[in-house]
């Protein structure tokens, strides 16, 4: 892990950009004399475009005494494009515009390459951060892409709890993997999320094998998650990470 820049934000929070191999990311840490838990923040890609929203989420984490980290999604931002994903995204847009069903083939080509690349990158990021003196765990995951988070929860025992954003397509293979998830979950679903499959999100929640899993569904589109859900997420992480 190579830190490339740093700056102080409000309340003494330190924001540091880094690279881990070819993967860029950002780490936010609170002022603390003791090692703190860590929140992995997933997002749909484009660190530059997403930065204001990511900072807001990170400051919410640091205010609760956590470090927060995010990494760039494969094929997004300044990373090399993934041709198969770009082609699938174009096929998806054509299907939606024509009012046609989104086929399993399109969903697999769109999502599975991201899962296959992103999950090992998250694990490598976790390895590097837990070796730093100021970060001690436990570890939570917050955000999407939900298929990436699902695979990570299956293969990574260091993730102790997850708040998942249901707002992206889910391959049928990931639905089957979800039965192996035992991590405590809070899933946020926007009922009127444009361009995404509500039933898929419900099927995924039903498939999760966790003994503790909670679904919060709210009216509104993709970016309309109510502010009070942040309070519920904070209480959820406090139960499992502190």
Summary keywords:
7 helices, alpha/beta, Rossmann fold, 242 residues
Structure in words:
It is a single chain. With 242 residues, this protein is of the alpha/beta class. It has a single domain (2-241), classed as Alpha/Beta hydrolase fold, catalytic domain (Rossmann fold), CATH 3.40.50.1820. The chain has helices at 47-63, 83-98, 104-130, 146-155, 172-177, 198-207, 228-241; strands spanning 2-8, 14-20, 23-29, 36-41, 67-71, 135-143, 159-166, 185-190, 213-218. Strands 1-2-3-5-4-6-7-8-9 form a nine-stranded mixed β-sheet, with helices on both faces. Helix 2 (83-98) crosses helix 3 (104-130).
Write the layout of secondary structure elements.
Layout: E1 2-8, E2 14-20, E3 23-29, E4 36-41, H1 47-63, E5 67-71, H2 83-98, H3 104-130, E6 135-143, H4 146-155, E7 159-166, H5 172-177, E8 185-190, H6 198-207, E9 213-218, H7 228-241
Parallel strand pairs: 4-5, 4-6, 6-7, 7-8, 8-9
Antiparallel strand pairs: 1-2, 2-3, 3-5
Helix pairs in contact: 2-3, 3-4
Helix content range: 40-55%
Low-confidence segments: none
Order of strands in the sheet with most strands: 1-2-3-5-4-6-7-8-9
Kindly estimate the percentage of residues that lie in beta strands according to DSSP: 25-35%
Under the CATH scheme, the architecture is 3-Layer(aba) Sandwich
Broad structural category: alpha/beta
| Ends apart, CA distance between termini | 27 Å
Largest sheet: number of strands, sense, barrel closure = 9 strands, mixed
Count of distinct strands: 9
- CATH 4th-level superfamily: Alpha/Beta hydrolase fold, catalytic domain
Annotated CATH topology: Rossmann fold
Radius of gyration: 17 Å
CATH class: Alpha Beta
Number of domains: 1
Shape annotation: globular
Written as H for each helix and E for each strand, in order along the chain, the element string is: EEEEHEHHEHEHEHEH
Please count the helical segments: 7
């Amino acid at each position: 892990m190579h830190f490339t820049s740093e700056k102080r934000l409000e309340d003494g929070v330190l924001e540091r950009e880094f690279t881990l191999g070819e993967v860029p990311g950002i780490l936010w840490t609170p002022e603390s004399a003791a090692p703190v838990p860590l929140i992995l923040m997933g997002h749909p890609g484009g660190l530059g475009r997403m930065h204001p929203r990511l900072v807001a989420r990170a400051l919410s984490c640091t205010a609760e005494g956590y470090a927060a980290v995010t990494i760039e999604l494969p094929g997004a931002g300044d990373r090399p494009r993934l041709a198969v994903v770009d082609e699938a995204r174009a096929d998806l847009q054509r299907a939606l515009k024509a009012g046609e069903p989104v086929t399993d083939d399109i969903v697999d080509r769109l999502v599975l390459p991201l899962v296959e690349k992103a999950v090992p990158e998250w694990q490598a990021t976790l390895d590097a951060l837990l070796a730093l003196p100021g970060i001690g765990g436990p570890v939570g995951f917050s955000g999407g892409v939900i298929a990436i988070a699902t695979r990570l929860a299956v293969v990574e025992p260091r993730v102790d709890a997850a708040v998942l954003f249901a707002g992206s397509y889910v391959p049928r293979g990931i639905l089957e993997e979800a039965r192996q998830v035992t991590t405590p979950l809070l899933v946020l679903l926007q009922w009127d999320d444009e361009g995404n499959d509500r039933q898929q999100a419900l099927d995924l929640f039903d498939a999760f094998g966790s003994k503790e899993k909670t679904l919060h569904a709210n009216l509104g589109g993709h970016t309309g998650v109510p502010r009070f859900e942040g309070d519920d997420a904070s209480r959820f992480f406090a139960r499992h990470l502190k």
